[in-house]
Amino acid sequence: MEEDFKKAAEFHGHICPGLAMGYRVARYAKEHYARSQDEELVCIAENKSCSVDAVQSLLGCTAGKGNLIFVDNGKQVFTFYSRDNDRALRIYFKGDVFQGMDALRQKAATGNLSAEEKKEFERLRARVIEDILNGKDEDLLSVRNVDIPAPEKARIYPSLKCQECGEGFMEILGRTAGGKVLCKDCFEKIVC
After folding, report:
1. Per-residue pLDDT tens for 34-48?
2. Which domains does the chain have, with CATH numbers?
């Protein structure tokens, strides 16, 4: 197991097929772009799954820095935009690695696996992870250059205090009701 995959697993908390998928995507992207120290590289993730943690770990695209953008289409698709090169690479994880596992995956999600099914599920899961980590890029990834506008850089807004709960919040997310400046939570409690 490669050291950067171990680090991604440590960041994520466990090893799973989703993390392995994200790792393969991130490893490919890393061959074309340097790890982002600030916002040089932006990732637009079309899912909110385990795979995203590998991207954060390997490439430095994080929600906190504002260079990880979620457009949740439920797809294993990642578009990496390089501000330094003004170009983008779209990577779709196309590998059909879960073939033959759907029924067990659904049953595992409900926690209703028998001991024998659980053993088979774990065996299949280990095989899937191995296939992902050792498969050929051309079999697993669909990669193409895409033209997209440069993603907006992260912005810092002034903070305000909610006149209802007293908590600070980002000005741009404030609301007004009853002559008061409110955070979204308080606004929704009052209006809804």
Report:
1. 999 999 999 999 999
2. 3-146 (3.30.1330.130), 159-191 (3.30.60)
